[in-house]
Design brief:
Blueprint (H helix, E strand, L loop, with lengths): L2 E3 L1 H8 L5 H11 L3 E2 L2 H16 L5 H17 L2 E2 L5 H19 L3 H12 L4 E3 L3 H9 L3 E3 L8
Parallel strand pairs: 1-4, 2-3, 4-5
Helix pairs in contact: 1-2, 1-3, 3-4, 5-6, 5-7
């Protein structure tokens, strides 16, 4: 496992959005299981539920998306990284102390990057420009090469 996929990529594989084809292409090009960190798990499930709450998807679509997440976890498409969760938080605090003031990165963004590093990933996939900036500062290669997504 060398690539960590942020929620901005993974969500688009479970719920249709403008960048869904690009997200699917990125994941398929990597050809490896998706590291399903604890932070990705809660963000992904919450994002799906929020889409229903905002009226962007129906209750049936929400249920189907969440069931597909469960199925993918059971089948190995999503895999829990082999990391020490406390080490993820320790690494996140170090990244925050070093980069948060300059990058304005949010806690969740920093936690994803820490999870990637603690999982031994060298590549970070995200459509979030701010998160991509801190990933580079943390020493990760980013994909795709360019991304245009505003917060």
């Amino acid at each position: 496992m060398t690539t960590y996929f942020d929620t901005s990529i993974v969500l688009k594989c479970y719920v249709s959005e403008a960048n869904s084809p690009a997200a699917v292409e990125i994941i398929q090009a990597v050809r490896s299981p998706i590291p399903f960190s604890h932070i990705l798990e809660i963000e992904l499930r919450t994002a799906i539920r929020l889409k229903h709450g905002r009226g962007e998807i129906t209750a049936a679509e929400m249920k189907a998306s969440l069931q597909t997440v469960e199925s993918d976890l059971a089948s190995g498409v999503l895999i829990r990284p082999d990391y020490d969760l406390e080490a993820v938080y320790t690494r996140a605090e170090a990244l925050s102390a070093k980069h948060a003031a300059a990058t304005l990165a949010r806690s969740a963004d920093i936690l994803h990057i820490a999870a990637a590093l603690e999982s031994g990933c060298a590549v970070f996939a995200s459509f979030d420009d701010m998160q991509r900036q801190i990933a580079v500062l943390a020493g990760l290669k980013i994909i795709p090469a360019t991304a245009k997504r505003k917060r």
